[in-house]
């Protein structure tokens, strides 16, 4: 047997060690994202979820994916990182010789369940090279006038490029739709009063109708329509009673009792937002007459300030800066664009994950 001795530990000064570890951890951040992408790609969350015991050992996973035997030790390394990150966990009570992996609340979101598609389409989109590559252009972009990192990378803005690339367009729309179903199912259940008294609601930039269908199903008497760009028309389901209107929110929004703007204003700068909001104001009646605009977005450091939310909000902000002309806004920044578009009153309700609901009246 080979003998091993461990010599006395020479510790780095703790300040230096901490600093270096902190730096390495941030530098390696993308490895976490890519390990997660790999786990989704090879279907691990659904495999564990659909297993009878809702748990699987390494060898069961390796056989089900399947992967060559030589890759088993590497799957172990991947799972070790993802367990550490809280994506999966080890079942302490499996009673088996080989430890079993189980899902955590985070990976449960990554399974297909009966009433929505989970968050897989959203994860796929976020980690698509077409949306990751623009981040490499931040440094060049910040030193020059105009443009966007996305444009330096792809030669046009997101909506123009999506119109040219059917696969990207499909993946992006599916991602938004899954996010919408998740959020809106919760909202119609817990905040139904948002929609009371309305006869017609237009979801402006409503994509393939994830929000619209969820609202229409919950409130059969409410007429819900989606207004979006022509490239959405082909993928929009036609037989579910939600009408699709081809339009441009910068030009004209048809008259309606209420407008929904979910994940729209964060794609645009203040000037562009004011233009959209002015068109909304023309389309909806005053508060006294029952009109309103419902915005569903992040309010940075909202009343329920939480360090984990703050980090996600700042990360999403830099991503929006990379891909669009938009911003994640703090309340005072929201207030400014509302005022500039001549709205008189707003009410913020936080607490839908990182998202808040803002009701806007004139
Ligand atoms: C981030 S997605 C949000 C989709 C949807 N509201 C949701 O949350 O699932 C932005 C949407 O705005 C649409 N859009 C972009 N420019 C637009 C315009 N000028 N007029 C109408 N819709 C537009 C895009 O096609 C896309 O569907
Ligand atoms: C990679 C993420 C891309 C993205 C781009 C524009 C959006 O409005 C958005 O909303 C959640 C996500």
UniProtKB/TrEMBL annotation:
Species classification: Eukaryota, Viridiplantae, Streptophyta, Embryophyta, Tracheophyta
GO BP field: methylation
S-adenosyl-L-methionine in keyword set: yes
Pfam families, alphabetized: Dimerisation, Methyltransf_2
Domain O-methyltransferase C-terminal: 137-343
Keywords: Methyltransferase, S-adenosyl-L-methionine, Transferase
GO molecular function: O-methyltransferase activity; protein dimerization activity
Catalytic site positions: 266
The organism of origin for this protein: Piper methysticum
Name of the protein in its database record: COMTL2
InterPro entries the record matches: COMT-like, COMT_C, COMT_dimerisation, SAM-dependent_MTases_sf, WH-like_DNA-bd_sf, WH_DNA-bd_sf
Gene3D superfamilies the UniProt entry points to: Vaccinia Virus protein VP39 (3.40.50.150), Winged helix-like DNA-binding domain superfamily/Winged helix DNA-binding domain (1.10.10.10)
Superkingdom to which the source organism belongs: Eukaryota
Residue ranges of every copy of the O-methyltransferase dimerisation domain listed in the record: 26-112
